[in-house]
Amino acid sequence: MKYVKPLKLLILGDALKTTKVSVPGRFLGLDVGDKYVGLAVSDPSNMIASPLSVLLRKKTNIDLMATDFQNLVKAFSVSGLVVGYPFGKLNNVEDVVTVNLFIEELRKTEKLKDAKYTYWDERLSSKTVELMLKPLKLHPVQEKTMLDKFAAVVILQEYLDYANRYVNGEPAE
After folding, report:
1. Would you give the DSSP letter of residue 88?
2. How many CA atoms lie within 13 A of 161 on its CB side?
3. How many C-beta neighbours within 10 Å does residue 40 have?
4. Which 3 state secondary structure label does DSSP give 160?
5. Which of 43, 73, 96, 136 has the smallest count of CB within 10 Å of its CB?
6. Alpha carbon 114 to its chain's center
7. pLDDT confidence of residue 38
8. What are the C-alpha distances in Å from 31 to residues 15, 53, 82, 165?
9. Cα distances (angstroms) measured from residue 67 to each of 32, 110, 136, 172
10. What gap in Å lies between CA 128 and CA 110, rounded to an integer?
């Protein structure tokens, strides 16, 4: 796995597509937590993020997870991973360590050697989803899996919006 800066996921060779974010593949969004990894995938035009699934995360199943990621990359023609990262979260070193450790463990499996990934600010993604789910009064287990999945959607959608604004020449703030 290779880390690239956010907009470098959009580059094909030396040329940046200029009409919309349309690299020859889709993006996979990840919301990495202690127990679960929420997943979202972009549509083929890389405009809209949709929930995909939630993977159970254990130290003993990283090899299995890497295989799952390999299969997803192949099935959805994924060209890059957008990983939620806790930028600017004061006093929350645990979240930073969790994400870094997960990426390092995935990298060590060497199953995603050609995969490119970038980090995207995940601040308030879970809180946003939590507030939307609260009125639904879901079972706690169902709420947690929905929270992780849709937090990944928020992370990926924010990235896609930013990238599309950049490619279309709008200020990408």
Report:
1. T
2. 9
3. 28
4. helix
5. 136
6. 17
7. 94
8. 29, 11, 9, 23
9. 17, 10, 34, 35
10. 34
Place of tokens 């997960």: 102
Distance of CA 139 to the CA centre of its chain: 25
Q: Residues, the chain, total?
A: 173
Question: Given CA atoms 147, 100, 156, 73 in this order, what sign does their dihedral have?
Answer: negative
Residues 6 or more apart whose Cβ sits within 8 Å of residue 127: none
Alpha helices (runs of H) in 76-168, residue ranges in sequence order: 93-109, 125-133, 140-167
Q: Could you tell me the CA-to-CA distances from 150 to 3, 23, 106, 120, 133 in Å, in that order?
A: 24, 24, 22, 15, 10
pLDDT at 34: 87
Q: How many CB atoms lie within 10 A of CB 104?
A: 11
CA 3 centroid distance within chain: 13
H/E segment holding residue 74: helix 62-75
Whether the predicted pLDDT of 83 surpasses 90: yes
12 pLDDT band (50/70/90 cuts)? very low
Is 70 exceeded by the pLDDT of residue 148?
yes
Q: What sign has the CA pseudo-torsion 75, 129, 87, 49?
A: positive
pLDDT band at 118 (very low <50, low <70, confident <90, very high): very high
